Amino acid sequence: MISVTEALERLFALVDPLDSETVPLRQARNRVMSRPVAAFRDQPPFAASAMDGYAIADDAAPGASFRVIGESAAGARFQGRVGLGEAVRIFTGAPLPTGADRVVIQENAVRDGQTVTFTERAEPGRNIRPSGGDFHKDDTHFPRRALNPADIALLAAMGAGAVPVTRKPQVALIATGDELVAPGEAAGPDQIFASNTYGLAAMFEASGCIANMVPIARDDAASMNGAFDLARGADLVVTVGGASVGDHDLVAGIAAQRGMVPAFHKVAMRPGKPLMAGRIDGAPMIGLPGNPVSAMICGILFVLPVLRVLQGLPAGPAPRFNARLATEIDANGDREHYMRATNGADGIQPFDRQDSSLLRILSDADALLVRPPHDPPRGIGETVECIAIA
Ligand SMILES: Nc1nc2c(c(=O)[nH]1)N[C@H]1C(S)=C(S)[C@@H](COP(=O)(O)OP(=O)(O)OC[C@H]3O[C@@H](n4cnc5c(N)ncnc54)[C@H](O)[C@@H]3O)O[C@H]1N2
Ligand code: MOO
Predict the structure, then answer these.
(1) Which residues face 341 on adjacent strands?
(2) What residue owns the CA closest to ligand 2's atom 3?
(3) How far, in Å, is the centroid of ligand 2 from the Cα of 347?
(4) Which 3 state secondary structure label does DSSP give 135?
(5) 289 CB under 6 A from ligand 1?
(6) What dihedral do alpha carbons 133, 134, 139, 143 form, nearest 10°?
(7) Among the atoms of ligand 2, which is closest to the Cα of residue 272?
C-alpha cells in the first residue's frame, strides 16, 4: 500500500490545468483567474478629498478667514485654481482643486455666507487621497485562489468588465450499488438512501466545479458500463463504492476492461483504504470507497486538491494547522488515521466513535485530527496536526 502523500503525487501526475475562458465580472466569483488582469487607470485617478470640508492652499490658522470661491463634488470638479486665502467647498471623493494642498473637515469650520474660518490647523496633505494611492495603471491582479468578494471589488475598481478564468471542471459522479435508492424515492427493506454522491456534489460545487450525478449504477457490468458511458466527456470521473474486495465490488474490474490505466489501488489510510485512481476514457478517474465517511474524507483529501490543479492552482495537500490535544489518545496503527474531531477552546477533541459509516459524527466535526502511521500514544496538551473541514 502506498502512502497518502504518494497517492496524491500520482494523482497530480494524472491531471493538467483546463483551458481558459472569459466571463463577465458578475460571474467571476469563486472562479480562478487564468492570467493577470491589468488596471485600466490609476485609482484614484486624481488626488481626491477623503472628507467633506474645505480645500485650501495655505495654513488654516484658527481665526483666519478664507473666501469660498466654488465647490468640488464627486463627479464634478472645481474648474478654477485655489489661491492663498481662498477655499473651495469639497466633498468626499471629489477631485482636489488645482492649487489646494489640504482639506479641513467641516466639523472644524465655521461658515458665514461666502466666508469660512477654521477652528483647527491642517498640515499639508491632510485628508487627501493621492492619485494612484490604491493602485496604478497597469498594476496587475492575479490571486492564486478562487476569487472572493474582495477580489471582485478590486477587479471592478481596476475597470475589468470581464475576467479570464479557467474553465469550470466538469465532474461526473457515479454511485454504485444494488442497495442504493435516491433520497426522496421509496426505499425497499434492504435498500438505503444514496448519500455519498450528494455530499460530494455539494463539496465539488462549493469549490467551483460542475458536478454531474449520473444515474446510480447497479452491481453488474452492463449497468456500470452504461454509467461510464454517460460519464464520457467529463474532466474527472469519480466513482463511489464497489472499490473493495467483495464479490459485488466491480469497479476496478470493469474499469480495467474499459482500458483504465491504473495509477494505484489501496492507500495506507483510515478511512479510505480501498481508494483507486487512473485514467479512463481519456479522463482522470478516482474510485472512492463506498463507506460514506470514507468517501467524503477522500473527497477532501484527494478530489479537492485535484480539482484545484484542474482549475490552474498549485498542486498541494489539504492545508493543516496545529492544535493542542484536549484528551489522551492511544497509539495509532500502520495506516494514517484521519479522525473526526471538534476544535474548541480546550483543544482538539476526537470523537469516541470513528466508524466510517457514521455521517452524523462527520456533520458534528469541524476538523480531522491526523495521526501519522505508528504514532505513539499522545497526552493532553501535545501538539497534533489537523485539517479544517467545516
Ligand atoms: N474483506 C474486506 N472487506 C472490506 C475491506 C477490506 O479491506 N477487506 N475494506 C473495508 C473498507 S475500509 C471500506 S471503506 C469498504 C469500502 O468498500 P467499497 O468501496 O467496495 O464500498 P461498498 O461495498 O460498495 O459500500 C460500502 C458501504 O457503503 C455504502 N455505500 C456505498 N455507496 C454509497 C452511497 N453512494 N451512498 C451511501 N452509502 C453508500 C454501502 O451500502 C455499504 O454499506 O469496504 C470494507 N470492506
Ligand atoms: O476506508 Mo474504510 O474507510 O477504512 O471504512
Answers:
(1) 350, 367
(2) 271
(3) 26
(4) strand
(5) yes
(6) 150
(7) 1
Return the amino acid letter for 210. I
Q: For residues 313 and 102, what is the distance between their CA atoms, to the nearest angstrom?
A: 45
Q: What angle do CA 156, 158, 161 make, to 5 degrees?
A: 50
Q: How far apart are CA 232 and CA 225, in angstroms?
A: 11
pTM: 0.92
Strands 336-344 and 367-371: antiparallel
Q: What are the backbone angles phi and psi of residue 351, rounded to the nearest 5°?
A: -70, 150
44 lines ligand 1 (CB under 6 A): no
- As for the ipTM of the complex, it is 0.96
For ligand 2, atom 1, the nearest C-alpha belongs to 272
Which domains, ranges and CATH numbers included, belong to the chain?
4-16+167-310 (3.40.980.10), 20-43+133-166 (3.90.105.10), 48-129 (2.170.190.11), 321-388 (2.40.340.10)
Which atom of ligand 2 lies at the shortest distance from residue 356's CA? 5
Task: Work out the average pLDDT over 188-207.
Answer: 97
User: Could you report the per-residue pLDDT of 48-59, keeping only the tens digit for each?
Assistant: 999 999 999 999
Exposure b/e, 174-193, CB count within 10 A at least 16 = b:
bbbbebbeeeeeeeeeeeee
pLDDT digits (tens, 9 = 90+) for 240-297: 999 888 888 899 999 999 999 999 999 999 999 999 999 999 999 999 999 999 999 9
What's the one-letter identity of residue 385? Answer: E
* Dihedral, 91, 92, 95, 97 alpha carbons, nearest 10: 50
Q: What is the mean pLDDT of residues 150-174?
A: 98
Retrieve residue 185's grid coordinates: 424515492
Q: Encode pLDDT of 27-77 as tens digits.
A: 999 999 999 999 999 999 999 999 999 999 999 899 889 999 999 999 999
